[in-house]
Structure formats: structure tokens, C-alpha cells
Amino acid sequence: MEKALTLTEKKRLDILAAAQDEFKEKGFLGASMDSLAKRAEVSKRTVYNHFPSKEMLFHNIVELLCESFSQAVNIQYQQSKSLDEQLYIAAMSEIQLLASECFRDLNRITLAEFIRSPELASSTLEHLGQQKNGLHIWIDDAISDGKLKAVDSEYAAQQFLGIIKASAFWPQLLMNQAFPSPEQQQIIADDAVLMFLARYKV
């Protein structure tokens, strides 16, 4: 049974949700803490108690993106299962995350702000680069088990995810294309696994 949220925790989540809507509609520069407080149905003081600035709110939205991504590819290496089976599960989990309109909205917000402020993009990406998600760890474990060639796990993980995003993220984010059908999603996942293992499987 999940623990019920405290009133403070609920208000924090309400503020973050309101911030996402505010940034999506008005952009980072056009968004105001007054309007955000009204959306969240809290006082302006409450907003500032949780987040001292819009920049802090932005960083927390980026963290939400990272958390969603980490959970999507949080797979554990299993010696008893084939590599392709494990990678297929990871690929489909990633595709399901990318299918979320909320996730794409978050990415639009962060992408627009990164373009406006290269310094903020640099500091944020540097922070993200210090974190390892489940796929990096899975690759490291597969290398240790002698199943994959020795490789920089971060580089290999980005290659794997890049294959998926080429069809199930960037076209939707930048060109408003329809998301792949369930059948197309399976093909994308299969191809990502095949290409990755063709390069790195021992």
C-alpha cells in the first residue's frame, strides 16, 4: 500500500504540474510566478517556499524528465536471459515513455529554454552527464559477464537510445509527426536490438 502524500508534498506536485502548463503556454520568459500560483491554487508565498525562483522550477522539471527516463530503462542484467530479450524489454519501455504526450511537453519546455540560454543548457547537461541510468549499468554488467565487447557504456547506451529516438521521438517533437503504431514500435525495438548487438555482442 502506497503511503499517502502529505499536504506539503501534494502542494509541491501541484506547483510542478502548474509550472509545466505555464511554461508550455507562455515559455520560460513569459511565465510568471503569480499566474503559476493561481494555476496551482496556492499562494505566491507557498510557491516561493518550495521554489525560490523560476530557474529552480526549471531545474526541477528537468529532474522530472531524468527520473522518468531512468525509470523507463531501469533494467537489471540477468545472466539467465538472452541479451536480445533483455534489450527488447528496455527498448519497448523507452518507447512507451516517449509515447507520453506529457513527456514530450516537458522536452519541448526544456529544449526551448536550452536554446534561449546555452549556459543553462551546459550546466544542466553537465549535471545529467554525471548520472548513470539503468541501461549504462546493464551494459557494464554484460561486459563484465563477457557477453559484450569492452566499450564506454554511456556512449553505447546513447547509441542504442539514439536509434529508437530517431523514429519515436525527434520526428514527433520537431515535426509533429504521428507516433509510430504498435506494430511500428515493435519493428523499431527489434531493429535497435539487432543493430546494437551486431556491433557489441561478443
From TrEMBL:
GO molecular function terms noted in the UniProt entry: DNA-binding transcription factor activity; transcription cis-regulatory region binding
UniProt keywords, alphabetically: DNA-binding, Transcription, Transcription regulation
Protein's name in the database: HTH tetR-type domain-containing protein
Keyword Transcription regulation: yes
Entry annotated with the keyword Transcription regulation: yes
Domain (HTH tetR-type) ranges: 9-69
Listed Gene3D superfamilies: Homeodomain-like (1.10.10.60), Tetracycline Repressor, domain 2 (1.10.357.10)
InterPro entries the record matches: DNA-bd_HTH_TetR-type_CS, Homeodomain-like_sf, HTH-type_TetR-like_transc_reg, HTH_TetR, Tet_transcr_reg_TetR-rel_C_sf, TetR_C_Proteobacteria
Domain of life according to the entry: Bacteria
Signal sequence residues: none
SUPFAM superfamilies, A to Z: Homeodomain-like (SSF46689), Tetracyclin repressor-like, C-terminal domain (SSF48498)
Classification via Pfam families: TetR_C_7 (PF14246), TetR_N (PF00440)
DNA-binding region positions on the chain: 32-51
